[in-house]
Design brief:
With 84 residues, the chain is mostly helical. The protein has a domain of 40 residues. Helices cover 39% and strands 10% of the residues. The chain is built from three helices and two strands; from the N terminus they run H-E-E-H-H. The chain has a two-stranded antiparallel ribbon. The radius of gyration is 16 Å and the shape is elongated. The chain starts with a helix and ends in a 23-residue tail after the last helix.
Length: 84
């Protein structure tokens, strides 16, 4: 089962960025992310939908450490030079 949509719904904690200064920056999931993933799969097996599970995760672990939603990303203002 793919859990990436779960990360986009703020169900998983944000990964930790790690750099060894040789091979670039990598993302590493924390051990608590494994607990989150197991909980998500368990709740899906019971029959809960992802929005229902999102509410359960927020109540159980909070939202302070979750992956930000794509809509949370700052947007460049029209005419600025920061646009890609």
């Amino acid at each position: 089962m793919v859990l990436w949509p779960a990360a986009q719904m703020r169900l998983l904690p944000a990964p930790v960025l790690v750099s060894d200064a040789k091979s670039g920056v990598r993302c590493r999931w924390t051990l608590i992310a494994r607990d989150h993933a197991a909980f998500i799969v368990e709740q899906q097996d019971i029959g809960h939908t992802l929005p229902e599970i999102a509410a359960m995760v927020a109540a159980r672990w909070g939202l302070h450490d979750k992956v930000p939603l794509k809509t949370d990303a700052p947007k460049a203002e029209p005419g600025s030079n920061d646009a890609p």
